[in-house]
Amino acid sequence: MMIVGDLKSYIKYFQDWADATPEIKFFCFGSVEKGIEFARSLPDFDYPFCWLEQPVLQPSDNGAGHLCLRYFTGISILIKAPIDELEQQIDAYADSLTILNDLMAKLMKDNNRALIHFDLNTLKLESINQLWIDAHYGYRMEVQLDLNINTRLFR
Questions:
Q1: pLDDT of residue 110
Q2: CATH match of 7-153 with 2.60.120
């Protein structure tokens, strides 16, 4: 049965994945400012850091009575590396990409199980080139993910 398309289910989907991924040490949903504040102030904060962005939402209808809410979102894996250590920066990029490839595998499996609707061809991965301050490196995955809203609209 497809996951319900409300905001809490969307966050829980990625939070559960992050919690089940031993490489990820910290998860955050929200703004860039919130993530930066966490990195600077929370005592239990650690890297790799998984940051889930607030989504842009678009309802969709497949024409056969199946209505979804499409989540246009981004998820980043950030790792801190010294600004003058190129090899550690490359390792951070590579490790981040490996973690996001594992997420890609999960998305494909969950699509095949009809828990979500996801098209691999819509994925986009880009390196984080100092979008974050304080020498963070990694990758951001842009995702389009459809979750079921039939149960919300047809009550």
A1: 95
A2: no
Domain extent listing, the chain: 7-153
**Rounded distance between C-alpha atoms, residue 136 and residue 95, angstroms:** 13
Q: How far is the C-alpha of 83 from the C-alpha of 91, rounded, in Å?
A: 13
Q: What would the pLDDT profile of 72-101 be if each residue is shown by its tens digit?
A: 999 999 998 998 899 999 999 999 999 999
Task: Name the DSSP class of 120.
Answer: G
**At 154, is the secondary structure helix, strand, or coil?**
coil
Where do runs of H (alpha helix) occur along the chain?
Answer: 7-19, 32-41, 86-112, 150-153
C-alpha 17/C-alpha 52 separation (Å) is 12
Cα–Cα nearest to 61, from 151, 4, 146: 146
Are 76 and 138 within 8 A, CB to CB?
Answer: yes
